[in-house]
Specification:
CATH architecture of the largest domain in chain B: Orthogonal Bundle
Order of helices and strands of chain A: HHHHHEEEEHHEEEEEE
Number of strands of chain B: 0
Order of helices and strands of chain B: HHHHHHHHHH
Radius of gyration of chain B: 18 Å
Radius of gyration of chain A: 27 Å
CATH class of the largest domain in chain B: Mainly Alpha
Shape of chain B: globular
Strand order of the largest sheet of chain A: 8-7-6-5-10-9
Distance between the termini of chain B: 44 Å
Helix content of chain A: 40-55%
Oligomer: heterodimer
Shape of chain A: elongated
Number of strands of chain A: 10
Number of helices of chain B: 10
Helix content of chain B: over 70%
Largest sheet of chain B: none
Distance between the termini of chain A: 78 Å
CATH superfamily of the largest domain in chain B: RNA polymerase sigma factor, region 2, helix turn helix motif
Largest interface: A-B, 44 and 51 residues
CATH topology of the largest domain in chain A: Nuclear Transport Factor 2, Chain: A
Number of helices of chain A: 7
Strand content of chain B: under 5%
Strand content of chain A: 25-35%
Largest sheet of chain A: 6 strands, mixed
CATH architecture of the largest domain in chain A: Roll
CATH topology of the largest domain in chain B: Rna Polymerase Sigma Factor, Chain: A
């Protein structure tokens, strides 16, 4: 074979052009985790290691060491060190960041989510929760905000929840329900006015006054704003049950609980 | 993305993981393809590609922009990692399976995709036969031949990737082709 023939063969050979999306996705997640850990989380990670190890050591020492000879104590020590080493090595994958990142990645790359948001770029606003391989992710796009229910095991979006469009009749019904509420009536009597009406998806952790405990929640409702001078309130109305399910003052600095609203999604965190 | 935009993105990526993931999305396929065409093994390609990007993430702070595309730097890491792979019998690999195991995912679709990729590779019989001969060459010849003919890189770019002068690349290429030609006779 002449060199020219070899060059021609090299130039014209059909090359494999293989894509492995699953590897690309998993590597992306691992890199995000690694980058995140590198820049932010070593303090937290070490605290977690310490607390886990402390718990394990306590269990081991109380259950195994009592009335045992010296060699067993040494064995327990060695096992504890092995556990510490194991935890340090595997910790990045145990912290849960992978799960959050995976949920976000599945939602962001879902054709369903993309279609629901108008086909353009999909941004992940927040991964609300991940429990038992199921996650809830808020995504934002050209057409607004949606909630995606994600199955981490199958790596698919199982449901896309969009905020309902309100008709003029719906808005009037919401205002009527709000006006009928005694607490809002009281505000209106003081000169307050009814403001915007919009669909709202709320989620987070909030204080339950009845049980006296913080609890996770998520709800779809219609929000009516009420304004009295510089003070504002948000009334969350359930159209189906025709009642105000929550009335909260939203004047900056007025609330004990933390809440941040992005678009038509509101996030609460009990503090 | 032009070189100036890429420069800005690389600078941001030094402190911003999201910016790094943009670079990753941009170059993953290119690097995966290069490693695959060098190794002709899906399994090795997955491992080496993972190593390349972890190395890039780790060493990005030391990367100094000197007017050449970011991809040249990634190709350089890839060439180094492939050489390492062939050099060492035992090596530490970043195991992505650990990530999956930790979140209890056993994705059947990922397995199916892997099997399909293996089958697709096997269908390129002519390439595999040629690769077998190329793999008998010393690594320095493999590098230049693959970059020149499979990645369509110019001599100047190959020099940037491998950190060698253009004259050196030309003579390596000439000698490599000559050796390959004899092997194929």
């Amino acid at each position: 074979m002449k060199e020219e023939e070899l060059i021609k063969k090299l130039e014209n050979i059909e090359l494999p052009d293989i894509k492995l999306q699953s590897h690309q996705r998993r590597l992306r997640i691992a890199l995000l985790d690694a980058g995140y850990l590198k820049s932010h989380r070593w303090g937290t990670v070490l605290e977690l290691v310490k607390s886990k190890v402390k718990g394990i050591k306590e269990v081991m020492t109380t259950s195994l060491v009592l009335r045992q000879p010296v060699w067993r104590t040494i064995l327990v020590g060695v096992l504890a060190i092995a556990l510490i080493t194991g935890l340090v090595i595997t910790l990045p994958s145990l912290t849960g960041q992978s799960v959050q990142a995976l949920a976000a990645d599945i939602a962001q790359n879902s054709p369903q989510v993309r279609a629901a948001l108008g086909g353009g770029e999909v941004q992940v606003v927040k991964v609300i929760k991940v429990v038992d391989d199921k996650g809830t992710v808020i995504c934002k796009g050209e057409l607004g905000i949606i909630t995606a229910e994600v199955d981490l095991k199958r790596e698919v979006v199982t449901e896309v929840i969009t905020l309902p469009e309100l008709t003029t009749a719906d808005e009037q019904k919401v205002i009527d329900i709000a006006r009928a509420d005694s607490r809002i009536k009281e505000l209106l009597d003081k000169g307050a006015s009814i403001g915007n009406v919009s669909s709202m998806y709320s989620f987070g952790v909030r204080w339950n006054a009845e049980t006296g405990e913080a609890e996770e929640f998520s709800e779809m409702s219609v929000q009516v704003t009420i304004e009295l001078g510089e003070r504002t309130w948000a009334a969350h109305v359930d159209l189906t049950d025709a009642k105000v399910i929550r009335l909260e003052e939203t004047t900056p600095g007025a609330r004990e609980s933390y809440s941040s609203a992005e678009g038509k999604v509101e996030y609460f965190e009990y503090s | 993305m032009d070189l100036e935009q890429e420069k800005q993105l690389v600078e941001r990526a030094k402190n911003d993981t999201e910016a790094f993931s943009e670079l990753y999305d941009q170059y993953y396929s290119q690097i995966f393809g290069y490693v695959l065409r060098r190794t002709a093994s899906i399994e090795i390609t997955q491992d080496v590609t993972s190593d390349v990007f972890f190395k890039a993430l780790k060493n990005l702070g030391q990367f100094h922009w000197c007017g050449t595309p970011f991809s040249s730097w990634l190709y350089r890491i890839a060439a180094h990692e492939i050489a390492n792979y062939f050099r060492k019998s035992k090596r530490r690999r970043i195991c992505l399976e650990e990530v999956s195991d930790s979140i209890k995912i056993s994705s059947a679709s990922a397995q199916a995709e892997l099997l399909e990729a293996e089958a697709e590779l096997k269908r390129h019989e002519e390439f595999l036969a040629l690769h077998e001969n190329i793999s008998k060459l010393s690594v320095k010849y493999q590098e230049v031949i693959t970059l020149r003919f499979f990645e369509n890189k110019q001599i100047r770019e190959i020099g940037e990737i491998l950190g060698k002068r253009e004259g050196t690349i030309k003579s390596l290429l000439h000698r490599g082709l000559e050796t390959l030609r004899k092997l194929m006779e």
